[in-house]
Amino acid sequence: MTMNLFGARQKQLLSFLTANAERETLDYVLQGMKEVLREDMPEEDVVRAYLQNPDEPISLSAEQQIVAMDKLLECAEVNLRMLCDLIRYQQLKDARVVNSVEEFLCLVRPDAARDVQEEDAD
Predict the structure, then answer these.
(1) pTM, full prediction
(2) Residues 6+ positions from 106 with CB-CB distance below 8 Å
(3) Which of 9, 77, 81, 116 has the largest CB neighbor count within 10 A?
(4) What are the boundaries of each domain within the chain?
């Protein structure tokens, strides 16, 4: 009984995380599309349907499809870069090369670390 409850809660958590990630991705794509397309911005439901099934016929123009896919790929790039940085940070921390995120940023992205320090000073 306990294992079934744990498994059900684990599935529920996974479902929540998946829905949250999909929503964040859609928000990112929509925001990027609004910046590019302005008044030619399609409805959210149409964009969602296209992103979920890009091979299906859809009412988006070629330009809208290109912008939507470009923003989706851009979002994936950002997420991949963040994942790589997290793995890199963990490895350097485990090897005792760095002790904090700030040290890690100074090591791998000195310009970004300086920007963060300036923001903290303000």
Answers:
(1) 0.75
(2) 113
(3) 116
(4) 2-121
